[in-house]
Amino acid sequence: MENRLPGPLREAVERLSSLPGVGPKSALRMAMALLRMPEDQARAVGQSVIELRERLCVCERCASLADASPCPICADPSRDRDQLCLVADWDTLLALEDMGQYRGQYFVLGGLVSPLEGVGPDRIGVSRLRDRLAQGEVAELILALGATLESEHTASYIRDLVEREFPGLRVTRLAQGIPFGAEVKYMDKETLKQSLIHRQRM
Asked: In the CATH scheme, what architecture does the domain 59-201 have?
């Protein structure tokens, strides 16, 4: 099918299908939708994609995406600074924040330890987490990493690091409701709420 497409359309489909979860058919539907839009609207979509990289930054405190650093959550004086919720990625932070239950702060690791894929602690934000914990304001580190094998590897590594380097720090994890193999960002609000309320000490 792609060979029969005009060159510019084929190139757009190829680029769109490189996105996670987007196959060639979905990419073609997206490209056709862009073609049907009024030109100014289609150009605005393209411009927003260009500006996505230019206008976003990484928060210096929590490593989440923001348009300013520190991000609004880190800059909010009403948030509890003694609780730090550790998440693997930014969309997990959004899922937890969306339930409106947690009033502490976050830290985004930017991935999980995965020995099978050659991803060690040095490839994710462990050194930045260590620096954050060394500031001494965190009393409880909440691990919201999910229940996959990679999550378990990461949780074990973080727990051992904290026991070794920050012995007074309490480490807890999300509890009931998250089945093995599940990712935090795909849980419904009530499951997340219960998991956070009934978190367990590690």
From this structure: 3-Layer(aba) Sandwich (3.40)
CA distance linking residue 29 with residue 35, whole number of Å: 10
H or E segment and range at residue 108: strand 105-108
Q: Of 117, 98, 119, 110, nearest to 196 (Cα)?
A: 98
- Segment (H or E) for 115: none
| pLDDT tens-place string over residues 139-160 | 999 999 987 889 888 999 999 9
pTM, full prediction: 0.74
The domain locations on the chain are: 2-55, 59-201
Residue showing tokens 């769109």:
16
**∠ Cα 84 87 92 (to 5°):** 120
Nearest in space to 99 (alpha carbons), one of 88, 112, 85: 85
CATH code, 2-55: 1.10.8.420
- Tell me how far apart the alpha carbons of residues 153 and 111 are, in angstroms, rounded to a whole number: 12
How confident is the model over 178-200, as pLDDT tens digits? 666 777 787 777 677 767 776 76
